[in-house]
From TrEMBL:
Keywords: Heme, Iron, Metal-binding, Monooxygenase, Oxidoreductase, Signal. Residues 1-21 form the signal peptide. Its cofactor is heme. SUPFAM superfamilies: Cytochrome P450. InterPro entries: Cyt_P450, Cyt_P450_CS, Cyt_P450_E_grp-I, Cyt_P450_sf, Cytochrome_P450_Monoox. Belongs to the cytochrome P450 family. Pfam families: p450. Heme binds at C384. This is Cytochrome P450. GO terms for molecular function: heme binding; iron ion binding; monooxygenase activity; oxidoreductase activity, acting on paired donors, with incorporation or reduction of molecular oxygen.
Length: 438
């Protein structure tokens, strides 16, 4: 029965694909990344964006959810798209992928909103002091595992979830202490659903049984979040204020007036950053607002890392409301546009030696500047609301680690010649050794 149901879905999908996949005239000469290309990249473990860079000439196209999407890696177009939000509003995900776990989980929020939002003012009112007061942790985890390989990718994800919980919601997810608790499990279950490359490529949620199972997991996570909000309302009603982000958002809602390196090179970078941290901070563990600005080399390292490995390879989809002329191409109105951050960050037209890790390229303050070559947090009026939050967290963690540990790759690491990407910009497990400094 399941086999025949699956076969019927496949046939319906192929019929819809045949009907809807006709290439508009203006897109015919744009190189296409086919579904076969993506599938082949997944099964050969070469699904990273480096494979796209080889064929990228400022613009690519692909078919997704029966819609043609243009991947833009030209900074001039990117700047126009990000600044002209009336002409290029964010795509409505509930229309793009209706009745899916993705639209249910992410469809209506500040990330995909094109309008004004009170959340911007919440982030502006959110102080560095409150950040440190809530998220500074001791380093027992590193002390207990000193000189042992630590898988850093999952550790940083767990740490970040705990930080966000305490700072944003005044709630301890306790991901580091108990990664199997109900909140963490529900969150991880949904993350696996929306980031599954096979499910995205073959749109497995078109099978009703799979879609219903996924939606149940999303509903479970939503219920847990709603319970946190309910408890926050109770605390506010009782006069208990923590000053966290959720509290600021709830108050704003009530007030509508609020609007590749060798080991030697790696050690050199690490030593230069450590010297700066020790020189500027002295005996202080927590950098002040002014000291944050003075950590110039550390900030250059963070910017260069985000250039090589942006947290997301592309920005939120935009939908063109009018024809877009680009060189010999005429992209018709109604086309989904995707700003290809990873492509821009690795373009030899925009960066000298783009595949090398060179923090010094950010010495000049106008490198990021007006031409939009660096879009780690997007740009324009709808720039990522949490950019300062992210930068503060990165500086804080790096200051803590550099003061106390020397960091190196685990022996025989697969990453010894450069970071190996598993899918999109997500690396294979990355083990580091933290040796306590004398």
């Amino acid at each position: 029965m399941i086999f025949w149901a699956f076969l019927a879905i496949v046939i319906i999908f192929l019929i819809n694909y045949k009907i809807n996949s006709k290439v508009p005239d203006g897109l015919k000469n744009i190189h296409t990344i086919t579904s076969f290309d993506m599938f082949l990249g997944i099964i050969t473990k070469q699904a990273g964006h480096d494979s796209y860079i080889q064929i990228l000439k400022n613009i690519l196209k692909k078919m997704e959810s029966l819609r043609w999407i243009c991947m833009i890696a030209d900074p001039v177009i990117a700047k126009n798209v990000l600044l002209q939000t009336d002409i290029y509003p964010k795509a409505n995900m509930e229309e793009f992928v209706p009745n899916s776990s993705f639209s249910e989980y992410l469809g209506t929020n500040v990330v995909f909103s094109s309008g004004d939002t009170c959340v911007q003012s919440c982030f502006q009112n959110f102080t560095i002091a409150s950040f440190f007061r809530n998220c500074i942790k001791d380093d027992r985890y590193f002390r207990n595992n000193c000189k042992k390989p630590i898988e850093i990718k999952n550790l940083m994800q767990m740490f970040t979830l705990d930080v966000l919980g305490k700072v944003a919601f005044g709630f301890d997810f306790n991901n580091l202490g108990n990664p199997d608790n109900a909140y963490v499990k529900a969150y991880n279950d949904v993350q696996k659903i929306i980031l599954d490359p096979i499910a995205i490529l073959f749109q497995t949620e078109r099978i009703p049984m799979i879609r219903q199972q996924n939606l149940k997991k999303v509903d479970k996570l939503s219920s847990l979040f709603k319970e946190i909000i309910k408890e926050k309302y109770k605390a506010l009603a009782a006069g208990k204020s923590r000053g966290d982000l959720l509290e600021l958002m709830l108050n704003a809602n009530e007030n509508q007036d609020n609007q590749m390196l060798s080991d030697t090179e790696l050690r050199n970078v690490q030593e230069n950053a450590r010297e700066e941290v020790l020189r500027i901070l002295g005996d202080n563990l927590i950098p002040s607002a002014e000291q944050h600005k003075s950590l110039k080399y550390l900030n250059m390292i963070i910017c260069e890392n985000l250039r090589l490995y942006p947290s997301v390879p592309t920005l939120v989809y935009r939908e063109s409301t009018e024809d877009l002329k680009f060189k010999d191409f005429l992209i018709p109105a109604g086309t989904i546009l995707e700003i290809y951050t990873y492509g821009m960050h690795h373009s030899s037209k925009l960066w000298d030696k783009p595949e090398e890790f060179l923090p010094e390229r950010f010495e000049k303050e106008n490198v990021i500047g007006e031409n939009y070559p660096w879009l780690a947090f997007g740009g324009g009026s709808r720039m990522c609301l949490g950019n300062n939050f992210s930068l503060i967290e990165q500086r804080m963690v790096l200051c803590l680690l550099l003061r106390k540990y020397e960091i190196s790759l685990a022996p025989n690491s697969i990453h010894k010649d450069g970071l190996k990407i598993k899918y999109l910009t997500s690396p294979y497990p990355l083990e580091l050794i933290f040796k306590r400094r004398d």
